[in-house]
Amino acid sequence: MIEVKQISKKFGRKKILDGVSFTANKGEITCLIGINGVGKTTTLKAIMGLTPYSGDILIDNEKLTKHTYEKITFIPDAAIMLPQMTIKQAMEFMNDFYTVWNQDRADQMLEFFKLKLETRISELSKGNVAKVNLLMGLALDVDYILMDEPFSGIDMFSREQIADVFTSHLIEDRGVLITTHEISDIEHLIDKVVILDNGKVLKEFHTEDMRENEGKNVIDVMREVYRA
Amino acid sequence: MNRYLKLVNFELNRFRKIYVTLILLTLLSQIAAVLLLTKGYLNDAYETIKLENLTEKSYVLEYGGFDFTHITGSLLFLGPIALSAGALIFYIFLIWYRDWFGKNTFAYRLLMLPTSRVFVYLSKATAIFLMVLGLVAIQLMILPLENTIYEWMIPKTFLNYSMTIDSIINSNPLLRIIIPGTFSGFLINYGIGLMIMFILFAIILFERSYRIKGIIMGILYAAAVTAVFVTPLMAMGFEVIYLYPGELFGVLLILSILITGLTLWVSRWLIIKKITV
């Protein structure tokens, strides 16, 4: 389980995160929702140790160390491999550094996304960058996957293809923590929602409970929260 | 350790094209210096001999002969050395900033590798140090070749004296810095070089951690450690203290070890705890 406990973060005088706490479980898809600038990406970066913060973050009851990077991965919304690398070279790089790199799964994803090994990262469209990022993240045999806006700025067909990943064996029983604006694409797949606003958690709920107890879906709750 | 070596190899490969260009430029420019300048000197000499109706020997007595120092002092010879030094100093900054400001933010990947971030830091330092040593080694290898070509082109009568590689290096202040004649000289020059590189790395890491505030913090840190390092020299300059050369060397050695150690510790703290992507 990823436990975020009372984390705070300031940029200059502006408080981006102000005592944010929530959990994301293995085997569930947890969605971090909020309008632009509420600190969704900052929260993911804090979990990955890519920005300093105050508070505590535990991954399976342990603080982040170098070993944790074989347990959790982060898929940002832009290309992070070197532009001059081909997809093949990027995969070799991952294979070189991660003991949890799963080549079979990487090959399956290449085929699934119809990507070519010899294509350079710099030549990829925005949609294909998102697919390569997913490939690099999901081909790792990690327990938790953090995804930042995987549907941002990409065409409908690529969105559908990426959404298909969530129902495939590629996710299996891993824990996924995702931020997205395109909630409608994966609303039916989400297990848990954490709504952020002004650096605080406004609401945290399981979608099934919400549907059963209050008859509301995620978008209904979002409307309620942001109109209030 | 294995991942550290892989990272060093990765960093070296990333600079490969520019590095090979620098090597080729040095080789071509210095050999061009030998060929063109030697030919130029000889043409001038023969023209003077013809005009003044001199013999080769009387020309040498009147105007002096040639030696390899004429080549090593030229722009064509020293230019590529200065250019390579400049490129490597620039690369100290580029090796970090391209991971943040390049077309893709590779810093994400580097800092999420399942290896100590200290290895990321040390791999960049090692890559630069190996590249410096590589260029120096190449300079050492091509010097005898250039000297042989030079002595082959110059008729014996015009040659003042045949220079050894040692005497060529000692005749030029820049060559003396990059290729010191003694092991202790090597340790001093490259030890100071390493210390400066680590201080520059610390300034970069301060900036990457605290942005604009970090630039000020980095500059203050660099100013503070520089002040500590030059204090014994200043104290001697103002005759506050007097140290024998051996004592001064010992004091500076201890200070440089302390400063490098502190800088490594500060950099480790920044890259593990404070850096932001």
Helix/strand layout:
The complex is a heterodimer of chains A (228) and B (277).
Chain A lengths: L1 E10 L2 E11 L4 E5 L6 H8 L6 E6 L12 E4 L11 H11 L5 H11 L12 H13 L5 E5 L7 H12 L7 E5 L3 H4 L5 E6 L2 E7 H8 L3 H10 L1
Parallel strand pairs in A: 3-7, 3-8, 5-6, 6-7
Antiparallel strand pairs in A: 1-2, 1-4, 8-9
Helix pairs in contact in A: 3-4
Chain B lengths: L1 H13 L1 H37 L3 H8 L5 H4 L2 H27 L5 H5 L5 H37 L11 H7 L1 H6 L4 H55 L7 H30 L3
Description:
Chain B: The chain crosses the membrane at residues 20-42, 75-97, 118-143, 183-206, 218-242, 248-271. Chain B: Keywords: Membrane, Transmembrane, Transmembrane helix. Chain B: It comes from Peribacillus psychrosaccharolyticus. Chain A has helices at residues 40-47, 87-97, 103-113, 126-138, 156-167, 183-186, 207-214, 218-227, and strands at 2-11, 14-24, 29-33, 54-59, 72-75, 144-148, 175-179, 192-197, 200-206. By secondary structure, chain A is an alpha/beta fold. Chain A has one domain (2-227): Rossmann fold (3-Layer(aba) Sandwich). In chain A, strand 1 and strand 2 form a beta hairpin. The longest helix of chain A is centred in the middle third of the chain and has 13 residues, at 126-138. In chain A, 42% of the residues are buried. Helix content of chain B is 83%, strand content 0%. Chain B has helices at residues 2-14, 16-52, 56-63, 69-72, 75-101, 107-111, 117-153, 165-171, 173-178, 183-237, 245-274. Classes of the chains: A alpha/beta (228), B mainly alpha (277). At the A-B interface, helix 2 of A face helix 1 and helix 6 of B.
